[in-house]
Amino acid sequence: MTKSMQTRRRTAIPRDVIFEFSAVGNSVKVCAIDPQTGLEVSIVGPVNAGETALRRTAMAKLRYMLEKRQPQSLGIKGTFA
Is the pTM of this model over 0.85? Predict the structure, then answer.
């Protein structure tokens, strides 16, 4: 992984995240919200998966979506026509 990719990846990690858990039968819906951008993602998992695993999965999806929203730098300086 190049240094620019590591820098971009670090900037996409939210500092504060709000988690919301909603049990629906044998499943749990977990919403993860980034308060800075207002981006909200949700996952659904089994009740017996454990809170830590569900948080980790929701956080991974939130990071992915934040990285997806950021424009990628080409790493090339200069003028393009």
Answer: no
